[in-house]
Amino acid sequence: MLNYPSWVPNEIAVGYIEHGIQALLSWQLDVLNNRSLQAPQYGNFIFSAPTSSGKTVVAELIAVNTVRQLRCKAVFVFPYISVAKEKFLTLQKIWRRVDLRVSAFMGSQTSPFQAWDASICTIEKANSLLNRMIDEKTIFDIGVLVIDEFHMLFDGNRGPLVEHIVGKVLYISRFLNHRIQIIGLSATLPNLDELADWLNAEKYETQFRPIQLHEMIMCDSQLRDVNTLQCIRTISSEFTVPNDIEHSIIHLCTESVVKGESVLVFCSSKAETEKLALAISHHFGDYFKSSNNQNLISSLNIQSLEAVKQAFHHEVQFVDDILQKTIPYGIAFHHAGLTVEERESIENAFHEQLLRIVCATSTLSSGINLPAHRVIIKAQMCGPVALNGLTYMQMIGRAGRLGQTEKGINSTDCS
């Protein structure tokens, strides 16, 4: 089927094609044609590739092959419920084509052990599931473990739990004579060699990114290339705003919205997301009142935004006061302080490009699949919430997603 490997069932290939993956990339084929990942070795594998490069598809195809060949079960581990839920719905549709059952273990969702061939779990649920299976001596039915965002191993809070999961599986493979294939994937994976040694796994690393990403630093109203620090351009006074960081961000947001593009602005705190969303909406409101920027006004679908606002009132009993002020201008904020209903409504409206600007905390960088044309990081460079390399890579991974944008732009302010 097109350029899918011959061992991939046609039904599975068709499922991915219908989800927009018409053909595999060359690096994906390099991995999938690695014989050590198939019978009889079913070797462990760990790989690092940029966001939107197709890592998850590779892991899923390896897993479905192992499950079908060994007649075993697969456990998929995702760090966030929102990502796990999205993957559950996708994988369920594709794997049912070859009569494989996919169940979810996240939040309050569980399934009888006999009722699934693949389980989609959060980290905590995966640990509980494996513990239960060890107690019930059904752990030997597991044949493959897939861990997404493997860099969570280095997370101060949840990293030890990921290590426990991997450690248990390694023990079972090495000392109980039951091979469980481990597949780890991440966009930002340090110490790849050491991790490969620990897992006794083959490793693979690629920097290929199907969507070009432009990374810039913003200092003193100047956009500079992140590598050379050469000034690319100076933020102009076109929109008559003062020359400071917040207003430079407002300028960049306005610039993108006028072009019909979407923007994610990452902030260091929940309060900062609300403050910035409100500030941007105030400036948009000034443009609307004075009609100074017809390009901005015409680029926003006012009727649709009013429908979004009404939908919020219908779905959410008490809409946040600030959201009521920002949504009419296509702007929202997103953090853990909002209700689940509010967050989902914001995510859906942003996906549909009704909301054009979302100011969010760092959890959004890997918590959900929410791509944008431009990502702006309003980050602290020192202190307890200073931006680190792993978080930075996750954030810029939201810019320019395959099949959704033609390019990605990342701007980081150095305040």
TrEMBL record:
Gene3D superfamilies: P-loop containing nucleotide triphosphate hydrolases. Residues 36-207 form the Helicase ATP-binding domain. InterPro entries: DEAD/DEAH_box_helicase_dom, Hel308_SKI2-like, Helicase_ATP-bd, Helicase_C-like, P-loop_NTPase. It is found in: Nucleus. Its main location: nucleus. Pfam families: DEAD, Helicase_C. GO terms for biological process: DNA repair. PROSITE patterns: HELICASE_ATP_BIND_1 (PS51192), HELICASE_CTER (PS51194). Keywords: ATP-binding, DNA damage, DNA repair, Helicase, Hydrolase, Nucleotide-binding, Nucleus. GO terms for cellular component: nucleus. Residues 244-415 form the Helicase C-terminal domain. SUPFAM superfamilies: P-loop containing nucleoside triphosphate hydrolases. One of its GO terms (molecular function) is hydrolase activity. This is Uncharacterized protein. It comes from Loa loa.
